[in-house]
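Following up on my earlier thread - several people asked me to post the actual chain instead of describing it. Fair enough. Here it is, all 202 residues.
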Amino acid sequence: MRLSADALAGKVPLAWRAFATVVLLSLALLALVQQRASILQTGAEVRLRTVPVDPRDLFRGDYVVFAYEIGTVDAGNASGFRRGEQVYVTLKPGPDGFVRAESVSREKPAPVAGATVIAGRVTSTSACARAEDGRLDCSGGRRRLGVSYGIESYFVPQGQGVAIERTEKARIEVVAAVSPSGDAAIKRLLIDGKPVHSEPPY
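Reply from S.P.:
Thanks for posting it. Predicted structure:
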């Protein structure tokens, strides 16, 4: 006679079940930490132009929310994108060293010399572009996608969030690491080209 999964689980002492649950959760957490560490250690570095938006979370310490220049992508001839859809954005460095979004696609494109592919999620299918002076350009005639990359929120040491948020946007730079799969993590935060915070791998 076969026992059901519930019956088998019922025969395992409660202490052992609790221990197994803790072990599984610990392994899952360790896997996430290791994945992020791998991105930071081996991912391709890209320089991102940023605009800080939000200074503080009282429950979790200081943080900065960044709006990236690459957060607005010209969809070109592509169409039919939906909010929440995963996309891949090809980044190429401009003359100033900051990367710019060259193209967007649903499938991960083949590697190209000098380019980096980052994975993101569509947040808007009619996004406004940010002009050089920081103002938003919402003029029609172009299909723009708003895209998030999972690196928009960044926690900093207590007391630094407000200072960073008030810093002129042109002085702020983020260096992110991008893995071959397209996952990204913030590696360093710079003001006036000088590091103000570096993220340890662990």
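Residues 14-42 form the longest helix (29 residues). That should answer part of your original question.
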